[in-house]
Amino acid sequence: xxxxIVKAAVKEALQDKNxxxxxxxxxxxxxxxxxxxxxxxxxxxxxKTVQPRDL
Length: 55
Prior knowledge:
By secondary structure, this protein is mostly helical. Helix content is 56%, strand content 0%. The chain has one domain (7-54).
């Protein structure tokens, strides 16, 4: 699986919090699931373009 998130950006967004190393993998999986669902919804609506409403 490709890395979909930028670890430095996640760390920056969480500011002063510590981030466990396995958090990034779990977050990446959640993002992949979200993208898969959005693509499925677009396809179900006969579109090739994924739109915000697919989230």
